Amino acid sequence: MINEERLVQTFLDLVRVDSPSGHEEAIGHELAARLAALGLSVERDASGNVFGWLEGEQAAGDWLLLCAHMDTVGQDRGITPVIAEGVIRSDGTTILGADDKSGLAIILEVLQVLKEGRSVAAPLPHCPLEVLFTVEEETNLGRPGRIDLARLRAREGLVLDSGGPIGTFVISAPSQDKLTVTVHGRAAHAGSEPEKGINAIRVAAEAIAAMPLGRIDEETVANIGVIEGGTATNIVPERVTMKGMARSRDDAKLQRQTAAMVRALEEAAARHGATLDIETARTYHSYRVAEDAPLRRRIEAAARRLGLEPQPTASGGGSDANIFHCAGIQSIPLSTGMADVHTKREHIAIADMVACARLLLEIVRQ
Ligand SMILES: [Zn+2]
Questions:
Q1: 259 CA to middle of ligand 1, Å?
Q2: Rounded to an integer, what distance in angstroms lies between the CA atom of residue 18 and that of residue 215?
Q3: How does pLDDT run across 180-198, given as a tens digit for each residue?
Q4: In terms of Cα–Cα distance, which of 108, 115, 96 is closest to 32?
Q5: What is the 2 CA–ligand 1 centroid distance (Å)?
């Protein structure tokens, strides 16, 4: 059965292996070795994603994909986990990386329990399991070719990469448009002949001020997150670059939101005679899981058997589940109990991690 001490130790071990996005080599190596030791056949693709397959002697039914991402958000390294009163945090100087090392540790613990069953000749019947640990989920989620999806056998999957009380699962997630903008003004000496210049910072500022941003409605948000420009106080700035995004679970709303952001830029540029390079790209696509979808029913039934309240929820974020849905793999993210992710306050309760592992085991056994 789920071993709390071992699960916590696995989690702490993984947290201590640095893996900011784009630097997953060490953790990928570690995880591939662990999967092989747990009896899976293991492969890695060109991007470094780790794949594993466990048919099991007693396996029956269809493949089920279990996914978590190996990278952690930002550039933090040397994470020092601290345990107090049943909760694991960082030492306050970095993120913790429970997003998504809790998912990795929980999957490994369930595989460990299945292996134990085999070793004492009392195998737990389970469906054939396909494991995928991904790279660059935080930075390059929608990059074409990030994952060699052709290797996947499953048509259904669980993505251990969400928060909330255990029993929470994500049935709807948004599409995202990414905007990359360059405003081209005209440089001039700001002291002697400012009238010859076109101030690109001013154009960008007017455009941003005119844009609908932040929470647009219950299922739509938008943000300008990066802006750079200008070189000196006595030069009318010639160039500004900015990056932003819009997300909605309704694709028509997303299209309108992105168009409104582009329009604000075009109007500001026109007022000042500036020109623009605007690139918009749909980086991932929304999905919605039907109420009667078999995987959803399976999660709900397993949760109820354990006395957990199934809590279907809509998310404002994308995950690997968005990518799998596009590839025809019905996928649902489960909460591992991770909280305050992407901040230095990030934490996870040991009891939640254990409860999630029990839930996952209950879902995969037959
Ligand atoms: Zn995550």
A1: 29
A2: 34
A3: 999 999 999 999 999 999 9
A4: 108
A5: 23
Predicted TM-score (pTM) of this structure: 0.90
Q: Any alpha helices (H) in 38-188, and if so which ranges?
A: 98-119, 137-140
Q: Cβ(336)–Cβ(160) under 8 Å? A: yes
Give alpha helix (H) positions in the chain.
Answer: 4-15, 25-37, 98-119, 137-140, 200-210, 251-272, 294-305, 320-326, 350-364
Do 297 and 256 belong to one domain? Answer: no
What's the gap in Å between 67 CA and the centre of ligand 1? 11
Q: Which residues contact 313 (CB under 8 A, 6 or more apart)?
A: 164, 168, 169, 170, 171
**How far is the centre of ligand 1, averaged over its atoms, from the C-alpha of 85 (Å)?**
24
- The 10 Å CB-count burial string (b at 16+, else e) for 269-292 is beebebebeeebeebbbbbebeee
Among all residues, which ones are annotated catalytic? 71, 137
Q: What is the pLDDT of residue 124?
A: 87
Domains contained in the chain, number: 2
Tell me: do 96 and 202 sit in the same domain. no
Identify whether residues 197 and 48 lie together within a single domain: no
State which of 226, 249, 284 marks the end of a domain. 284
User: In which domain, by residue range, is 234 found?
Assistant: 175-284
